[in-house]
Fold YCII-related domain-containing protein.
Amino acid sequence: MHYMLMFNETAAEMAKRDHPQAAAAYWGGWTAYMGAIAQSGAMVSGNGLQLPETATTLRVGEGRRHVADGPFADTKEMLGGYVIIDVPDLDSALEWASRAPCATAGSVEIRPVLPAPVH
């Protein structure tokens, strides 16, 4: 079964991406984690995301598009990336999620992926 793991990080954690003293450890943790998923054969796909400030949000109301710069909500955690994994069950997905570097300072949302429609 395919599950999406959505990695939510705090602003402090995301700031480590470019911090001279913290970047190596930050990226090293993520590289090791993603490498472990890939090596296990569970990885289907995944990507990190640019910082939330680069987001554009679209809403449609009254037949018109409303476009705003930035993320759609002011939250304490921001989506930093995702991975799709193929594992037997939710327990296996939870095991991978618990190993994510952001699990201790942010959160990981685990969601089953809808199967492709059969025609």
Remarks:
- DSSP finds three helices and six strands in the chain.
- The first strand starts at residue 2 and ends at 10.
